[in-house]
Amino acid sequence: MKQVAAAAAAALAYHWWASRRKRTAKERREAALEKRFEAKAGLTLYGNVASPCTRRVLIHLKLHGVSYKFVEVNLLRGEQRSEAYKKINPLCKVPALRHDDLILYESGAISYYIDSKFGPQNEPLETPWLDWELSLADAFSRLSRQYVDAHIVRSLHARPHFVQDLPEGPFAAKWTRIFDGTFCEGIEAEACLERVAAHLSELEGALADGRAFLGGAEFSAADAAVLPRLLKCPQNHFLRTPLQEERFGNIIAYVERCLALPVLDAGAAQTRLFWRPNVVGRFVVPVLEAWGNVRNAAYSTVHRASATAVDAAVARTPKFTARPSTTARTLVVDAAAATCFAVRIAARELGDNVTVLTLDAPSLERLAPTPDALAACGALAGGCARLPLLLGGGEAVAGALAVATQLSNGRLGDSLDAAVSIKRWMHWARSVDGDVLQRLYALYVGPRRLLERGGIEYALAPLPPVERTLALERCRDCNAPLDTALTAELAAALATVEETLANGDLAPGFPSLADAFAFPIVECAHACGAAPLSGSVAAAPRPATLAWRASLLEREAFAEVGAEIGRLWGVDS
Question: Which residues form the GST C-terminal domain (predicted)?
Answer without folding.
Answer: 119-287
